[in-house]
Amino acid sequence: MTGPERIVQRGLWFDEMTVGTVYEHRPGRTVTEADNVVFTTLTMNTQALHLDAAYSVDTAFGERLVNSMWTLSTLVGLSVAQLTQGTIVANLGFSEISFPKPMLHGDTLYGETVIADKRESASRPGEGVVTFEHTGRNQHGDVVARAVRKTLVRMAPAS
């Protein structure tokens, strides 16, 4: 007796990634005050601009800002199910990280990733190096984060 077909969610194998393809990651993630305070305190970031509402009122922003590391972490996280779930070997590094506009409590982060480059690994057969260019936008379409990330990704297993 056979059962129903089973499909396990996974990211893309190296072979399935095409340079220039843009992946839009949905749904987005709305950041709450609790998210910001918990992330900021868990990571020992005592910056008043993230934690102290009274202090933040007198800054150029007039209110607390979401920790930019939350924004970066969540931007990468938004891409995982679609691109690297179960297919990544390792993150190799990040570069060109920028935060052109801050995230505020209640903003929603949407992510997109461009496959910027890929090459087979010279030292690790069956794996390849993929360069992702991640862009995060808020609900208004404003760019709030950019990052270039190199990863080591598995090639599709032989059937």
Automatic annotation (TrEMBL):
UniProt domain MaoC-like: residue ranges: 18-135
SUPFAM superfamilies xrefs: Thioesterase/thiol ester dehydrase-isomerase
InterPro entries named in the record: HotDog_dom_sf, MaoC-like_dom, MCH/BMMD
Superkingdom of the source species: Bacteria
Family: Belongs to the enoyl-CoA hydratase/isomerase family.
Protein known as: Acyl dehydratase
Species annotation: Rhodococcoides corynebacterioides
